[in-house]
Records
---
Amino acid sequence: MAIKSAENFRILRKQGITIRKTNDVIIATFCLENDHSLLFSDKDFIPFVKYFGLKTENLQDDIF
């Protein structure tokens, strides 16, 4: 999980996106790898939805 999380972080960095919290990268990667949806209100997860297709159950409609 750590290696895949680091890969995802690097992919986003190449797009000019920095995720502020390492834990967010790990959580998003876990959800992606295990085909889980993620309920969130933290904007750090939006790039995972946009670039990796993270399934979401979003609490705030206006953050996209």
---
Amino acid sequence: MAHPPSPPVDLPDEPGLTDGVVSLRRWRPTDAADVARACDDPLTARWLPLPCPYTLIDGAFYVEVLTPQLWADGEAAEQAVVDAVTGELLGACGLKLRQRSLGVGEVGYWTAPWARGRGVASRAARLVATWGLSELGLSRVELYAEVGNEASQRAALRAGFVREGVARAARRDRYGVAQDMVLLSRTADDPA
């Protein structure tokens, strides 16, 4: 049975999410070059269905067109993850709200190659999930990671997500091949 589309969400202009180590903010045009550099990385390209090679034009489209439109439409809050002190771009973390009418959101993230191994993804995912559950009224936030992407699964677990199982053939990669995905979630009743 098909569910009705979720009504648009009136997202705050700048949620102001931070834990003192990382901060999340809206994307800026000046982020395009760093986005292109991060997303053109072979490891990033391995796990995400991004253009390959990922160019400055792709980065500019992402920060100047796609993410502002998703935000304005209330479909997703895609944010830059930056160092809370220096402002250096460390990655991205977003909350998709396409199933909001069911009380469900979906967190996704990537970490720039120069920021890996520092807990960036887990910190950002924890902030975004907590925001969705406490401020946006979601009852459940999901996160999917390819079965082989153990680093992403570990980051999700550190962010308080619980592994539920494997969703078979749940997503297609950039080549159109169906991939099994580990499904993790946090609920409003889980500890922050």
---
Amino acid sequence: MEQEKTAKLLQPINVDSPRLTNYDKLLPGLTQLSMGLDSQGYPLYIPWGGGAYGFYADHKQLPLDKITKSVTELWSEQWRGKFSLNKTQAGYNFGLALMSLGKSPFHLFQLVQQGKRQEIKELIDPQGELQTQLNALYQNAGHLWASTSEFKSGLSIVSSWGPEVRAKNQAGGKWEMIRFSEGEMVWLDTINFVKHLRGPKLEAAEVLANYFISKDVQDRIAHDLSMVPAMSAANINSVLGRSQQLYKTDLFVPPYDKASYRLMKRMTLVAEQSRVQTMEDNTVSRE
């Protein structure tokens, strides 16, 4: 599989290296993610920081008791045209659709890894439940954004990677991430050492890695990059909250293989096209 091919290019991290003095200060739950271990159970990565594909509401405009509590409510008439979606990262909206059906957001990836072809075929059926659900999600969205989220008028809920939300709050807003009962999909940036690194070059890489997981740097990524640090002692990200609140091992986005990504991309493109068609049909009906 693609994950195994990548693993062959990396070397295990020597967690006892005298140059990795900050390693034991990292959150224990981040250092042993199964997707980042080699066949012997040794880590192939050092966690650096992460974040979430979050949905945010301005509490100054939307009272707490009015905010959606479940992913499934994004399909409701109440929120039609009032939330935004990212259009470039296929896996996240695909995952939302799976979560709304009571499945893991990584269900397709898991089936591909297990080689369950018949179940994959049923899941990706163009007339099936998942494609129908994806289409409905895109049709219900009020806006799709590419590189940075936009706070357009008419949107009560804005999806974002985080930085834009911090800027809005600094300007006087009170935007906070909605904590869906199903949880949020989380991404993690890591530091890796390629297999050919040896001797002084490996030692230099360890020194640099140790700097990146120092408290000074971890504090900066929480403040400047709107990320959640991997070190428990680092400052709290004011938008995303404490590390322990965000980092849930069953919701870390996996390293998708080409087959999984291709299928997700194809289905989300169909959903996006269905949205365009619906908008055109609505325009014609009003004329």
---
Amino acid sequence: RRPSWTDRILYRVNADVYEDTKLVAIQKNYEDHPRYVQSDHKPVSAEFQIK
């Protein structure tokens, strides 16, 4: 079985969509959820502030 990135959240701000506006994504929280037992892949979540 191939390894996977089950503990990462990939994100990108696409600045080309917003003319004359600088967007910044700030990660406020990152959390894993080890109590999820349906799979060997444990889910993660994150909270971002977009400015």
